[in-house]
Write a structure and sequence with these properties.
Number of strands: 14
Order of helices and strands: HHHHEHEHEEEHEEHHEHEHEEEHEHE
Distance between the termini: 85 Å
């Protein structure tokens, strides 16, 4: 054996000894570790905050799969296999010329008696929302699966009280609260709801339903459960003699009646910046932005006060007169005005302006939606006010709406949003609302009529 062999052997022996020592050390360390695979949630939480957010965003985007079109241009290239079987206007306008106003399909003589078939292992369940347990189950399903921002920073955090308000107006029907459960463990994994509504479409008054809260568990979205949910709800609605529905969506389906823009106005700008709320203006620093969005400390409209039950009749008259201006609007009963507008803590706020003679001249309302802030070291929640109905006959509209911002801020809301429906466009820019990238599209099921611009829409669907 020559010297070079001897030299080569010594490092090899050193390396071997080092390897044995490191294995022994590793074995000693492993003895202190729990057996079995490590908890992935615990592993995620052990990472730095920035890394957690990065992984969560990636997982969220991966779970989305192919998404529906968000613009009309994208929609025209998309194949809607389910919607092509439904009585809705075609995106290409084919067959629309025969009917100007009226149903696409006339009332059928018979309605299917049996529920539509679900994939094996799943069953229908009519949800009893008077049960706190069932209501909590629905809250969990919606909060974890309904919608969240694409960057996975916030998601809905519905309360039991909010869902009762949104889903149990006068004349609601339990069979229109349609759930899907897993046979093996009874877990709620799908939901769709309808509530009754009288709606004016141009000159036609029609009894129909508003469709709300279509939700399928994220893990089941490849099972094509959404079309079955829609068909089953339509069957249940048809059983009550109703053939039309109104609904909204943030994606383009066949075919939008109107496409509206969402506008937002910061109330707690510092907090919104800290949680990286999407859509904030990036053209000014925080100090300048806070100064730009500063609001008065007190309201200026004389006679402005919270609504009481005694105001129902006066508000009903104000709204009905105002809503006649629009091509799509609700026809509200006294009971519905009381349900939708009478203030409920953390659900709905309504303010009226009372004249010197005691008559009500103006009304403004906004509903509350809470969000859970994800993966943030300081903030866990966010409160948003959404404008509902406004009718102004005497007060200065600009002053009234600025007062609404002041009141919302004083009640702890972080942001206020509004659609450019009704007369909202007249004050949005002047009160420093910013247009967002998202649109909300209005749809009618089994009804044909001309499209309308957002300022002719007088219907807002809390969803």
């Amino acid at each position: 054996m020559n010297d070079s062999d001897s030299c080569d052997k010594k490092p090899a022996e050193d390396a071997s000894g080092s390897l044995k020592r490191s294995k022994k050390k590793q074995k000693k360390e492993d003895a202190w570790r729990p057996e079995g695979p490590r908890d992935p949630i615990a592993m995620l939480k052990s990472l730095p905050e920035s890394k957690q957010q990065e992984i969560q965003r990636a997982l969220h985007l991966f779970s989305l799969g192919p998404s529906l079109p968000k613009t009309l241009q994208q929609a025209k290239k998309y194949t809607y296999r389910f919607w092509e079987t439904q009585p809705v206007p075609r995106l290409d306008g084919a067959g629309d010329s025969a009917v100007t106003h009226g149903p696409i399909v006339a009332g059928e003589t018979s309605v299917r008696k049996e529920p539509f078939s679900l994939p094996q292992g799943f069953s229908w369940d009519t949800l009893d929302l008077s049960s706190p347990t069932v209501l909590r189950e629905l809250c969990t399903l919606l909060n974890e699966n309904y919608m969240e921002e694409d960057d996975n920073t916030i998601r809905f955090d519905f309360s039991l009280e909010y869902l009762q308000w949104a889903l149990q107006p006068p004349k609601w029907l339990a069979q229109w609260h349609c759930g899907v459960r897993v046979d093996a463990n009874n877990k709620l994994v799908g939901f769709i709801a309808a509530i009754p509504a009288d709606v004016r479409i141009y000159e036609t008054e029609k009894r129909m339903v508003q469709v709300k809260f279509l939700c399928v568990h994220k893990k089941l979205r490849l099972k094509r459960m959404t079309p079955v949910l829609i068909r089953e709800l339509a069957r249940r609605v048809n059983q009550q003699g109703l053939r039309q529905a109104v609904y909204t969506a943030g994606v383009v389906l066949p075919t939008p009646l109107s496409s509206c823009s969402s506008w937002t106005r910061p109330l707690n700008l510092r907090k919104l910046k800290e949680v990286s709320y999407p859509g904030l203006r990036q053209d000014m620093n925080l100090q300048r932005a806070v100064k730009f969005n500063r609001l008065p400390k007190v309201t200026k409209t004389p006679g402005l006060r919270p609504m009481t039950k005694e105001d129902v009749a006066g508000i009903h008259s104000l709204l009905q007169a105002n809503l006649l201006k629009f091509h799509l609007s609700p026809i509200l009963s006294l009971q519905e005005v009381e349900h939708w507008l009478l203030p409920k803590e953390n659900v709905i706020d309504t303010y009226v302006v009372q004249g010197d003679d005691g008559t009500l001249t103006d009304v403004v309302s906004f509903y509350s939606v809470s969000y859970k802030v994800l993966n943030h070291a300081v903030h866990t929640s966010l409160r948003a006010a959404h404008l509902l109905y406004i009718a102004s006959a005497a007060a200065n509209l600009m002053d009234l709406m600025e007062d609404t911002l002041v009141l919302a801020k004083s009640k702890g809301f972080d942001i206020i949003s509004a659609l450019d429906v009704m007369d909202n466009k007249s004050f949005l820019e002047k009160l420093k609302f910013s247009i967002s990238n998202s649109s909300l599209h209005y749809y009618l099921y089994n009804w044909m009529c001309p499209n309308m611009s957002p300022d002719k829409v007088g219907l807002v669907l809390p969803n």
